[in-house]
Each structure stands twice: as C-alpha cells, then as structure tokens.
Design goal:
five-stranded antiparallel sheet
Length: about 170
C-alpha cells in the first residue's frame, strides 16, 4: 500500500477507522451505565422498597390493632357469662329488664370466630332505644344483627325487644 501513489486510500482508511471508533464510543457510552450511576440507582430502589415494606407493615399493624379493639380475647365459654354481666349493667343504666339471654353455636369465619347471642329486654320504647344505642358503641364489641320490637302485655307504653347480637373473637395465633 503506497500512500504516495494513492493518497485517497489513506484518507479512506483514516475515515473508516474514525467511523468505527465513533460507533464503539457511542455503543459503550450510551448503552452501559457507568458504575456509580448503577450503584446510585440500586440504592434508590432499595430505599424505596424498604420504605414501601415499612409502610405496609405499619398499615398492617394499624389494621390488626383496629380489629383487636372490636373483638373479644377470650373463649366462647368465657364470653357468655362476661357478656351477660355487661348486658345486665347496660340494662340497669337504661331502666330496662334483661328477661332472657341465650348463646348460639360459635362458627369460624376467616381469622375470626363468630359467637351469636339472643337477648330479650322489656321496658319503655325510649328506654329500649337508649339500650340499643349503648349496645352499638364500639367498646361493647357487639354487632346488632336483628331487632324485633313487639308490644308488651306488662302495661301501656311497654315493649319487648328481642335482639340478635354477634360477638367476634380472634382465633389463636393471629
């Protein structure tokens, strides 16, 4: 290869080498991130995922605490007498008489056990309404399912209310 006779060949070779170098620089410069950038991106993703896990754990703990506030932490056998005492106190406070109290069969639903109860109370209509409002407060940990009010034969203005209640208990290990 004699460049004196063919100077254009030298320029062509130099142009080809330059083009190959530019393409290689472009490929290496634009497709592969530099090491510090990759480490920064990894750290950012790691911190975002740790915040996300922490937020999920916090939300889960809040939900569990809310459930525990509204559920009983005792067996169904212990719950019946405890609930009867509480209902008697609430009935006394609202001037109604708890004339009947029965428990039903406990059933399991997901992570909870449902314990049904039926209470019958006698009194004036307004006193029964006050009794029901007290039962529906979150601290009683009861849900009123069914309410049936009938006229009572105990006197004028007296009614009998049959109330179906549901108490929820958290299963062991939750």
């Amino acid at each position: 290869m004699d460049l004196r006779r063919n100077p254009e060949l030298g320029w062509n070779v130099l142009l080809g080498i330059s083009l190959v170098a530019i393409v290689l620089i472009g490929i290496l410069g634009f497709t592969k991130p530099t090491e510090p950038e990759e480490m920064m991106r990894h750290r950012s993703q790691k911190s975002q995922s740790s915040f996300s896990i922490k937020d999920s754990n916090d939300a889960s703990q809040k939900a569990i605490a809310a459930i525990r506030k509204r559920t009983w932490d005792m067996s169904a056998e212990q719950l019946g007498p405890e609930l009867m005492q509480r209902l008697n106190r609430i009935a006394d406070d609202h001037h109604v008489v708890l004339s009947n109290f029965r428990s039903g069969h406990t059933s399991d639903v997901a992570a909870l056990s449902e314990a049904p109860f039926i209470a019958t109370v006698d009194g004036s209509f307004t006193d029964i309404v006050g009794f029901l409002q007290a039962l529906e407060q979150p601290e009683t940990k009861l849900a009123v399912n069914i309410l049936q009010i009938t006229a009572s034969d105990q006197g004028v203005g007296k009614v009998t209310a049959t109330i179906s209640l549901m108490a929820f208990m958290v299963k062991e290990g939750i």
